[in-house]
Amino acid sequence: MKVLGLCFGLALWLAAFACGGLPHADRTGGQNPAPLGDEYRIQSEDVLRILVYNETQVNVDVPVGKDGNIVAPFVGAVHVAGKTTDEVEAILVGLYKAKVRIREPLVSVIIMQYRQLKASVGGEVIRPDKYVFRPGDTIASLLTMGGGPIPDMADLHHATLRHANSSELIPIDLYALLDRADTSQNYVLQDGDELNVPEDSNMKIAVQGAVQQPGPFPYKDDMRLADAISLAKGEVPGKSMLSKVLIIRPILGQPGQFYRIEANYVKFIQSGDVAENITLKPGDLIYVPTTRTPDLTEISGLIQTVFYSVELLNSGIIKLRL
After folding, report:
1. What share of the chain is helix, strand, coil (3-state, %, to 5)?
2. CATH code of the domain covering residue 182
3. Nearest CA among 208, 207, 210 for reference residue 223
4. Quick one: pLDDT band at residue 21, thresholds 50, 70, 90?
């Protein structure tokens, strides 16, 4: 591979990556699935049903206040936030024995309605917003509520999750989740979670020169030269020199420096030589010349047009050296 040199300080890469569902209702009434993982712990704004066998005057639905307390019949305020229903049942058994003199109270505590748990999804999704979710819902559930990632715009590899009251960004590989069914990062949602799906500014290639439809195109994993030429609607009959296709590839960490890769696409078509069907990378420029000797001046202009700001070019800051 040969290297093309470019003297210049700032590069602006072409941008670009991009799937639906409805938010769940928060009311349960016994219809919600049990939470995944640890047993659910009661929160403020939940509604509990207290039942005491053979003591119908005690049976009641009570909301959990913002202070985490409920007011239970005949025993007063009881702090329940952060506890499981089993733990609350044990507390009430003791209170009804001590304060109401029920000899062996059989107490049942049921969560009749969960508080509204909310999480937001933003960035390159179809319906960015804040959604109500049910205990046990996961990142995949939230992504579905948001309509899924925008095709060819979302960077699925670099999504992040932030919990409420935290500045830590937890990396999430949505590509592994959606494409490979890898659920290792499909975390159970917490109230106040924020999922962000960033724009992928490097997931583009460009095809220029003697093709039917030149232009930028979305990059896909494992993309090859044949895929790019197909996106550009193929050769221009009688003009395209497919035996001298050039792939101009940015060198990572070296702004303005490029590899030049030559591919004989005719050999791939005629004899199936897969070595000539080059595997592409994000940011590649594929140039199909019209002669056996590619016009380096034309290529230089294409590089500038595809990879850099027109405003900077017009200012004369960028100068290409081949």
Report:
1. 20, 30, 50
2. 3.10.560.10
3. 207
4. very low
